[in-house]
Amino acid sequence: MLLGCIADDLTGATDLALMLSREGMRTVQCNGVPMGRLDLEDVDAVVIALKSRSNPASEAVAQSLAAADWLLAHDAKRLFFKYCSTFDSTNEGNIGPVSEALLDRLGENFTLACPAFPAAGRSIYMGNLFVNGVPLAESPMRHHPLNPMRDSDLRRVLARQTQCEIGHVAYADVEAGSAAIRAAFAREAAANRRIAIVDALNDAHLRAIGAAAVDAKLITGGSGVAIGLPAAYLAAGLMTGLTPPPKTISAPAGRQIVLAGSCSTATRGQVAAALAAGFPGLRIDPLEIASGHVNAASVLDWIKAQKPTAIPLIYSSDDPENVVAVQKKLGREAAGHVVEQLLAQVARGLGGLGFSKILVAGGETSGAVVEALGIKVLSIGPEIDPGVPWTLSRAGPQMALALKSGNFGTPDFFLKAWSMLQ
Ligand code: ADP
After folding, report:
1. Within this chain, do residues 206 and 314 fall inside the same structural domain, yes or no?
2. Atom 18 of ligand 1 has which residue's CA nearest to it?
3. Which pTM was predicted?
4. 328 sits in which H/E element
5. Which of 6, 20, 409, 410 stands 20 to 30 A from 385 (CA)?
6. Is the beta carbon of 265 within 6 A of some atom in ligand 1?
7. Could you give the count of Cα atoms lying within 13 Å of 187 in the half-sphere of its Cβ?
8. Same domain as 158, residue 17
9. CA separation for the pair 226, 213 (Å, rounded)
């Protein structure tokens, strides 16, 4: 294995695995650090999905180092730390502390931080992150239930999380191409700026950054910055060839369902579109779960009552005002936890009801659902929308899963995704 990746949530891992697969690396995704050794003879990249984005920083660091040790023990030549393209984090972490800990583990003194993903509307200019054309702090991310992003300047965001100096590789260097970027990396490293935010406005920038980072032992960023890595590794002689990605996926026979635990704007639009298209929908309210009025058994009973041909939609997605009101009553973490646990328990009951194709919206939500299903290793199938592929379990229950980061996908995502399954 050439590239060992550590992703701070499940949908982010899938997104990165898809990017690497699309660009020609044979990629496997593991949910959690695998127990024991895996045979990786025919694999170019492994992406380990953690659920560390919203954990206390010390736990995120410990989990990330355990993943790094597993990857290094499987001969990873490079490490990649993947986080969200909206830089989801708090003043305590976890992007800064994990990046530093990985640098320390590798004995390295420099890495880049580039969450840009222009295809999904995330770009970085002057160290500031823009989401669909508006500064991060003015985007819907300012209302995120777990990590509201209220500062668009990633240098400041990162500086609050770490002791180390934060550098910057600005647009002019990035536009000038990989040699200029490489020189800028050397300049930042020489100035003892251990982590540098890198501007990027388009895929050409990302490819140039990938080429400049070909020797970097650690890269950090969104999945976007991985776009240039496979070709760069090939050109550098680190790979012998690129492998085209799979075009179709043969899903196991069975029913289809959508579980949405994301309150992101994109997901709320997708829920509204699915309801308007006639999907039978059940909205679950964290307060009703907490009070015991709604539980997994009552949700599964509702699902059983739907027509076998229908695609049930179970959703907790709500608008920012209601989310804040619920969080005031239950606490932010508890509100998230009750929803995640309920959807996880529902997922556990789905196999018994004949469901084998599950679409999950929300990063944390997907992590909870996949853990409950006991699915450890996924192969990457065709891309539904940027950053979201269908995946197939390689062991455990036979399931086709689409794990969607809350912000991703077009409004008709819940309607169109199914047509890609054979
Ligand atoms: P995204 O990918 O959009 O960030 P996540 O699933 O990662 O979605 O995070 C959403 C969080 O919000 C989860 O912890 C989820 O349980 C929680 N949540 C979902 N619905 C509600 C709600 N109605 N009120 C409060 N929190 C909620």
Report:
1. no
2. 336
3. 0.83
4. helix 320-330
5. 6
6. no
7. 11
8. yes
9. 10
